[in-house]
Specification:
single chain, about 150 residues, alpha/beta, TIM Barrel, 4-stranded parallel beta sheet, about 40% helix, about 10% strand
């Protein structure tokens, strides 16, 4: 699930982060999906409220383009379960930084077969995409997934 709050529209288009999180978590509890849900956001405020009030929920920070892991972690104020950025910003250094901090790295929305293959070779195996992974390989004309595409953990 992604929260789409914006500080400029707090209290106008959506509730403040605390109320928003409470309302969202009521639904998560009603649907009994807390163990299966990952909540992601570009806005650290909802993630901060979630970490404080619902520490069992898995969280993903969505990095803005061109920002560093360390700057984002300082802004967020805690270590999220997942860190998500666009494929173009994923390199061996970022992969190692995330591993050292025990943060799972996710490729942000990527539908490019070549980028997915490049990132998979670096050891990243989680992706946000508009297509199921087998469909990406089908579009490419591959009959099977290459060994460089590890299965999700």
């Amino acid at each position: 699930m992604e929260t789409k709050l914006n500080i400029k529209t707090d209290g106008i288009n959506h509730p403040l982060p605390e109320e928003f999180v409470d309302l969202m978590m009521q639904i998560v509890k009603e649907k009994n999906i807390g163990e299966r849900v990952i909540i992601q956001s570009f806005d650290p405020r909802t993630l901060q409220v979630l970490r404080k009030n619902f520490p069992q929920i898995k969280l993903a920070f969505l990095a803005k383009a061109g920002t560093s892991l360390n700057d984002n972690l300082a802004w967020l104020g805690f270590k999220p379960d997942y860190y998500s950025t666009n494929a173009e910003y994923i390199d061996p250094v970022l992969v190692e930084q995330c591993k050292a901090k025990n943060i799972l790295l996710i490729i942000g929305n990527c539908n490019d077969y070549n980028e997915l293959s490049r990132i998979a070779k670096l050891g990243v195996n989680r992706v946000i995409t508009d297509y199921p992974i087998p469909r990406l390989f089908e579009l490419r004309g591959d009959k099977s997934q290459p060994e460089t595409m590890p299965s999700p953990q």
